[in-house]
Each structure stands twice: as structure tokens, then as C-alpha cells.
Amino acid sequence: MNKILNKFFYDISPLFFIGVFLVSSFVLSAEEGTEIESVTIIGTKDDAKELPGSGSVISNADLKKQMDTDIHKILSAVPGVYFRTEDGYGLRPNISIRGTSIDRAAKVTLMEDGILIAPAPYTSSSAYYFPTTGRINSVEVLKGPASISQGPSTIGGAINLISTPIPEANSGKFIQELGQNGMVRTHGYYGGNSGNLGALVEVHEHQTDGFDGIANVGGDTGFNKSDVMFKARYESGNHSLTLKMLEMNEKSEQSYVGLSQASFNKNPRLRYGMTQYDVMDNDGDQMSLTYAGSIGNFDVVASKWSNDYHRDWFKVDKANNTKAHGVSNGINSVISAANAGNANAQAILDGQLAVQVKLKHNNRFYTNEGFQFKVSTEVGMHALTVGYRDMEDSESRYQEYECFDQSASGVNSALYSCGTGYTGSNNRLRESEATSYYIEDKITLGDLVVTIGHRSEEYDQVENRWDDGTPTRTQLNSSYPKTKDGDYTSTGFGATYDLNENMQLVAGFHEGMTAMFGTDPETADNMELGLRYSEGMSDVEVFYFQSDYESLKAECKNSQGGDCNEGDVFDGGAVDVSGLEVSGSMILEGNNGTSYPIGLTYTSTDATFANSFDDDGDYWGVVAAGDDVPYVPDRSLALVAGFVKSNGLSGNVRWVNNGSSCSTAACGTNQTIDAHSFVDINLRKALNENVDIYVGVENLLDDEDVVARAPKDGARSQKPRTMKVGFALNF
């Protein structure tokens, strides 16, 4: 930790002294300023209504209604956003915006307080780390042409999570939750101001034993996750410097392994005994220093950050390592064979045949650090914004293997070392250096507002692999280093036209890209047309969107289950995506001071391949023109209805229905994911102005639908009916 701190403060020293100079130089001439807590990409819900495209803000008041800790459920309130559940808790989200590849949310720009938070956004963008949702204060989702300001992934859009702000007055909050399956969540923070200084300390602890069982051997399937955050701010007039430090740790007994259809039908929430040793260990540190202020007619936000993250996901790699009993060894191959009726494959999964099981330490170290700034000003009818980012990130792998012997009675031996490990892709270092800038001009012409934007991305990437066979790096593989340079520009425009004080037309177009390591980026042309209506306590938005991919790219991952080398990139060619997004909300006033808020979101999406090809099962498999893109459901619908009484009692019911999809383009037998739903309820009572108590139930109807197949032939069920109770104390 001390090493990280020393490195960080060495790196931020130029920004720190520049910030101090600016604050001291302008303190005498600065006007009284408002408090700037967090870096946003939209702002308030009212700001979202003025975007030259579609966007959503989920406020802290919204989050309090259900007290969700699963980002998938929070994002169900945003049209155009899809998700694929994996562990039932949202620990490692799979998120798609407007048809982007859903796996590990790798095609979405993810930020916390305006800073990229993927472990390595250019080198390895998969969201194996995701901010702890239970401590997040609000959420922003930006789509359409405005998203080109938030790269590097600009086809679908961006998600920005806002952390807890430093309170204006000395105050804090303490939240305690208890729930089924040994769930305990404790969240507390305290902060305030004294003169020009402000600070905040926040702790979030979340643990559970898990809802799945493990066949034959037993054991927990939950997690223990801890976050500690510290913020400090110096503010003078319109200028502020904010230091943020976050330390997180997680250990979760999670597994990649889904179930054969026969196993799922028998018990959808019982894992195979061979997953006994599967576990994810991760930890990380994040630090940032942000200057925000006004200098004359210019508003400036500048940040220097450093993120370090380590994870070791130890999990089943070969379910039948020696290929005994005439069955292939890959875990997805065994599940696929069982789905096809192979009795030996099913017996291996059930622990009824003796096999050697091979597990892999997916042991990786990530870095992500850089500097960025945004300057905005107004000149006549023009509102100009210029942004710049200079960063570097990396992924380092030291991966080895361990094995155990599964007996015919389902008993597992102790682990022992096996396999070579530490060679080739298991001993590699990938690095990227990237610079980007964007320029945006918002031109106001009466009721017509036109926004024009341009973005440029340049990056240099290098990969090295070693053949040491040990966690050292002296024998460089003869085929390395390999390098790749990227240079991509994109342009977009959006327009809003006020038909009257209640109704607004929206239109936009933008070129989008997603950086891929070692190959050309994924690209698509995107357009949207929309209508906004707002009157009194009612809001309605309708958007049509379309994305034409020149080249859909996919990276091989264990979670996909393809017969490929992890990290390799595959080209799916041209893809057409189109859809309709509808969202609406209203508040009905009842008797005796009771109100009834209602919210609805609906998305319909058609995402299909425009060409036919066969990659011999490496990733996509056999694809015919017109096949659906995997994991993109044809529709989604979310309805939230509640009541708020004057005596402090409130409640909500949330019903979410996701349409059907498939885990592969060919959509073979037992690769379908049928339409499925869940119902959550929440009841809250304010005992006084400082104390609330609440109770919530997830999946009220205890549905057991298949909600995912990951790897592609392994069925997974949603979280069972689960109740929690809690209280929130403001002090």
C-alpha cells in the first residue's frame, strides 16, 4: 500500500501544485461557488431532458426505494440496457447497451466519478471488477451521439457511477441489513466541513453464504466483500481539490460452471461437486485527485488517477482432464455432451465416475492510470467543451494449474500441482498507451439546439509472452513482442427541437468504436430519433435507434465457452441492430396525502448477423445471415408501481420481464434462454426524520427459469426468493 501511495503522489504532484497555484491565484477574485462533489456526465434528471440524445439518471432517492445491491436490477429501469445474470448478486456484471456484446460489459464505457474503472480499459476491458453497488449514490447512463465524449467504447454508450458525496454539514448514515442465506450488509459513512476543508470516511461490508448448494461435498457459495473509501477536499471560492482513495477486497465462492439441462431440471440451484474449490479472490486500490473550478469564463475539471487491481479466479478448466470414458475434457464440452444424451458425461458431472479435474488460477494483475481534463465555456450561441485524456493500462498474467481426483462416489481428493503453467498465454504482459480528445459545440438557435462532436483515439499496444515455466520472465517467446497501433476518429451530431413547452424532438448520428487489443477496433454507424414529452408530474420518452456494424468483434473468454485461446479476437462481420425504447413515469395523487408513483420502461431490439460464415467452432460457430446475435433478448419490460403516504410509509412493486435469446447464433438444443420474469417488493417506514426501517423480497414468486447459459451450454437459474430487513439511521 505504501508503495502504491508513493507512486501515486509522485505521479499527481504536477497536478497538485498546478491546482494549489490556481486556487491561491484566483481565491481573491473568485465569486461564491456552489459545491462540486462528483464528476458527472449528465447531471440531474432535468439535465437528461436536454441531452442531444438519450440518457438516464437514477437518483439516490430512486436507489433508496428498493435498496438494490445488484447493478443489473438497478439498470432494469433504463431502456436500451440488457443484462445477463451470472451469480445472482451482480458481482461481475454482463451489460449490453443497444445490442453491444453483453459478455462482461466489455463494450460499455464504465466509470466511477467520471474516471474509467474497468481494470484495463484498452488492454482488457472486461468488468471483472465493478464498483460495489451498495455504496453508490446515483447512476448515469448516456447513449447516442453525446456518448462520444466518454470513450473508448462509444457504440452503445457509457455508465457513470457516482460515489457518496462529502456532506455540506457534519453528518453521516448507518445502514444495517440482515437477510436469508446468512446475508449481512453494513454500510456507514460520516463526513463534513470545517472552513475550507471537507472529508468523508465510508465503509461497506457485504457477505452471504450463497443460495446454491454443492452436490456430494457441501460448502458455501456466497461471498465476502469489503470497501473502505476516504475523500478529502480543499475548497476556496469556485475552486476545489478533491482527493479520493478506495481500497476493496472480495472473496467469493463463485463458479463459471453452469448445469446440464438434466441437472437443471432436477435441481437448478445445486452446483456440481467438482466446483468445490472454485473461488474468486480479488483486491485493489484506487486513488484520484480532481481539480474543479472556474477560471474567468472557463469551467475546468481535471483529474489524475491510479487504479491497481489483482484477481485470481481459481476454477474448473477441464472437467475430465485425461479424457476418460470417451468424453472430451473441456467443462463446456462435457456439459454439451450431457445435453446431447451422453450418459458418461452426465455421470462425470454428477460425481459418479472417477476422473481427474483440472483447475486454473486465472491470476492477473491490472493497472490503469492517467490524466484527463475537460474545459467548457460559452461564446454567444455556442457552448464549447474540449476534453483530453492521456493514460496507460496493463494486464499481467501468472497462471498455473492444480488438479484433484474425483472418485466414483463423488468425493474429491486434496488439490495437487499439475500441468506446466507459466508459459505462453499463462505468462504474458499486455500494455497499452492511449491518448484521446474530443471537441463538442452546442449551438442554440432559438427552439433548435444542435450539438456537433468529434473524437480522436490513438493507442499503442504491445504484448510479450515468456516460456520460463515458472513465475519469472527471462525466456521471451520467439514470436514476441507483438505490437499494434490504433488511430481512429469519430464524428457525431445531435439536435433537439422544442415543439412547445412540453414536447421536444430529438435526432442524432454518430460513428462509434470499441478498442480491441491487438487488432482493429470494432466500428458501427449509429443513429437515433426520439420524442420527449413532459407535463406536470408526467414524463414520456420514445426513441428509435439503429446501429450498423462494419465489423462485430468478440474476445474469447472462459465464460463464453468457445473452442478458442483466451484473449484471441474474432470478427463476426457485418451486423444490423435496431430497436425501440419507451420510458415513462407519472405520479398520481390520491386522498389523505397519498401519492402513487408509476414507472415503465420497454425496449424492443432486433440484432442480426448480415453475413454467413463458419469459424469451425472457435468462437461464433456456424452463423447464417439473419441469425440473432447471442444474448441480446428481443425485448425487455420493467414496471415499477408504488405508494407514498404522508405518515412516512411507502412501498414499491417491481416486475421485470426479459424476452428470449440464445447463447449461440445457431441456437441449438439447450442453448435457448426463454423469456423470464421476476417480481421484487419493498416496504419502508420512516419512524422519524432520522430513522427508517424496511423489508424487501426479491423474486417474490420464486421462479426457477433459465436466465443464462454460461458457458454457452450450461444453464443457470436466477436468485431464489430472498428476504431481507434493514434500518437506516441518519445522524
Textual characterization of the structure:
The protein is mainly beta and 731 residues long. It has one domain (2-730): Maltoporin, Chain A (Beta Barrel). The chain has seven helices and 41 strands. The strands form eight sheets. The chain has a 22-stranded antiparallel beta barrel. It has a five-stranded mixed sheet with strand order 1-6-7-4-5. A hairpin with a 2-residue loop joins strand 12 and strand 13. Helix 6 crosses helix 7 (343-350). The two termini are 32 Å apart. Residues 1-36 have low confidence and may be disordered.
Beta fraction? over 45%
Per DSSP E runs of 2 or more residues, the count of β-strands stands at: 41
Stretches where pLDDT falls below 50 for ≥5 residues? 1-36
Number of domains: 1
Rounded Rg: 25 Å
Query: Given this structure, which CATH class is correct?
Result: Mainly Beta
Q: What about the largest sheet?
A: 22 strands, antiparallel, barrel
Given the structure, what is the number of helices?
Answer: 7
Task: Report the CATH superfamily.
Answer: TonB-dependent receptor, beta-barrel domain
Helix coverage percent: under 10%
Query: Which descriptor suits the 3D outline?
Result: globular
What is the distance, rounded to the nearest whole angstrom, between the alpha carbons of the first and last residues?
Answer: 32 Å
